Amino acid sequence: MQSNYFPKQVTKVAASSNAQPKFGHSKKKEFQPTAKTLDTSMQSQKKTQKDHIQLIIRFLRKLIQQKNLQKRVKQLIVEKCSETFFLQALWAIKYSVYLYENGEKPGPIDNSAQPLEFIVVNGHLWKFLREEYGGGPEIQQKHKNRSNSLALPAKMISQSEFQVPLVGFQNEQNYCYLHSAIQSLLSIAEFNYYFLRQIKNIQFDMPFCKAYLEVFNQAKICKTTLDLPILKQLTLNKFPPKSQHDCQEYLLHVLGSMEDELNNLNRTLKPKGIIYTNFIENLYKGKIQTTIHCLECQQTNHKLENFITLSLAISYSKTLEQCLQDFTKEEPLKDYNCKRCNGICTRKIRLYEMPKFLILHLKRFQYFPQIHKSNKTITFPLDSLQVTNKTYRLKSVIVHKGQMQQGHYMNFSKRFHNWYKFNDSIVRESSKKEVQLQQAYILIYQWNDM
Description:
Strand content: 15-25%
Structural class: alpha+beta
Number of strands: 21
């Protein structure tokens, strides 16, 4: 059978009296290896043997390290210690697989990762693991009768303390965009957890993180409505109060500023071996893979990028699922040609890694050729949004009423297993039916496995 991958071989024979006939049997010429060929072959064999030996050495070294590590951990476990600490259960399982089953080495400890299930370890083992792997935060077990128990059954820490009471915000100027964004964040108990367990104990300058923590603390004790002077002051230059502003832009600004503060903190403390969890990345960041494919020379390039929000076009869709399909479909690139052959290219986006909280932004505002807002209805699911291999449930919706020049933001969020409407200072109970009737601008979904 003729191969499709190789061209047919053509051999031309010069016409002469000494030319071999086209029929009959010809004597095959025996291959005579040269000294150069033998030397190259021996070098190749030596290199293969050397690589194989190095691979064995690396394996034996790892095996010895694992054995020594197992002995060290065992010694720490049996040592008496009056202090005990919580260690995230899933991290402990990964470490156990690494220790005893030749699994992958785990990353830094993340005691704030979901699910909030823990085992209890003694102080010696906790100190050793913290020094080796970093991370945190440190959660010491408090009890009257201290014991040396090494591990307790995995237990769930209640999230009730991370829920925020139903509190409205005073709106003396055009701050409805700010209020709606903050109400969405306050509705996420997993987000609030990091502030109580991590940010609360940090003595460094972190204005955005500390401002949000102050809002959370005030909301816990507030009897009427809250003002948010610190958050307003922090964004005074970028979001002047006398102008209309985009809620999605503000939400990205707040989360981005918090992440910058965490990264700066970790750069400062890294020489001391202290690393705090980047909970913005942990909760909200996903990855998309963009593929550029040339239709002429077939060259393909891939690029991975982080995202916090996905901005979805709504012009040709009626449902949120169709918006997502449109976002990931392959499309021709009009203003770009292949750098290799100048051919026509296509682009396709793939949702490569999904976040725990998926923030979807519907592109209702149009700025060119003229300023315009689309009031098109896009239906969206509440309990089951399937994206790649994950299922999400709706946690919060931000709605924009009116036009671009003069509009108003409101928030619908789920708290204490019920839906509520947050309209600046006014808070009232809502329903699934009312939520589904809204012209959503921003939707925040939570991964069902959390």
